[in-house]
Amino acid sequence: MGKNLTQQKRGKGSPTYRAPSFRYAGKIQHPKVMQEGVQGEIEEILHSSGHSAPLMIIRYPEELTLTLAPEGVRVGDKVSLGATAELAPGSTMKLADIPEGTSIHNIEVVPGDGGKMVRSSGASARVISKTKDKVILKLPSRKQKEFHSACRATVGVVAGSGRTEKPILKAGVKYFKMKAKNKLWPSVSGTSMNAVDHPFGSKGSSTKGRPTQSARNDPPGRKVGKIAPRRTGRKNR
Predict the structure, then answer these.
(1) I need a labelling partner for 33 at 20 to 30 A (CA). Which of 49, 93, 183, 210 fits?
(2) What is the pTM of this model?
(3) What is the pLDDT along the chain (237 residues), one digit of tens a residue?
(4) Rounded Cα gap, residues 85 and 58, in angstroms
(5) Phi, psi for residue 87 in degrees, rounded to 5
(6) What is the DSSP secondary-structure string of 20-40?
(7) Which of 162, 159, 116 is nearest to 139 (CA)?
């Protein structure tokens, strides 16, 4: 029997699961105009419910940019662009121009995309080594990834590093935290649901009633759990 699962409801695109992006401060990206030696001034540091880190508004001579605020900056500070920029928090440079060992964030995956990686509060990557066209970075996950040397990044560590250290003591605080981004919370286990709501549901809250793996070609109401697993069970060492 087909079930109307949560992932199916979310994929429909109804306002129940849609992010309230009209309340967000705006899109985070690097300046569109990348002129060597151009300086900008930090006009304001603000909070956005759609981002875990504080944001800052930088006024350059030709444009106004909204980007992530690194640790150690304040309103009125100057930030620079290009290869001749000072190696200070908030400066935006190409990876080829950033010295090895420098902490960076908001890294472009493709040159000119505005920044896609290492954007959460307290996160930073580190420049490990360089070749002619590639730069190897050590990401917060401790994995090393290769980027094009023309990709841009911002110097410094993203501000707000103490966010994960503060405990959430009450369920009400967690509720409003998730509601700001319209996240589905609390998350209910499929085994705790009724049989009409989930393939793992039954009259008992801890008994699955059927295997947790499903075939690759299963219908949408059954495709839950381990989808077409190569193997199951414990590994024999």
Answers:
(1) 49
(2) 0.81
(3) 567 888 888 888 888 888 888 999 999 999 987 777 889 999 999 999 889 999 999 999 888 999 999 999 999 999 999 888 889 999 999 999 999 999 999 999 999 999 999 999 999 999 999 988 999 999 999 999 999 999 999 999 999 998 889 899 999 999 999 988 888 899 888 888 888 888 888 887 677 667 788 999 988 888 888 999 998 888 876
(4) 15
(5) -80, 75
(6) -GGGS-------S---TT-EE
(7) 116
Domain 23-160, what architecture? Roll (2.30)
**172: which residues sit within 8 A by CB, 6+ positions away?**
none
If you ran DSSP here, which 8-state letter would residue 158 be given? B
CA–CA distance, 78 with 189 (Å, rounded to integer):
50
Q: What are the backbone dihedrals phi and psi of residue 151, each rounded to the nearest 5 degrees, phi first?
A: -70, 145
Please give the pLDDT value at position 200: 85
Cα dist. 128→36, 102, 124, 132 in Å? 24, 9, 13, 14
Q: How many CB atoms lie within 10 A of CB 172?
A: 9
Contact 153, 99 (CB under 8 A): no
CA atoms within 13 A on the CB side of 189: 9
| b/e map 21-48, b = 16+ CB within 10 Å | eeebeeebbbbeeeeeebebebeeeeeb
Q: Tokens 């009409």 correspond to what residue?
A: 196
Collapsing DSSP to helix, strand or coil, 8 comes out as helix
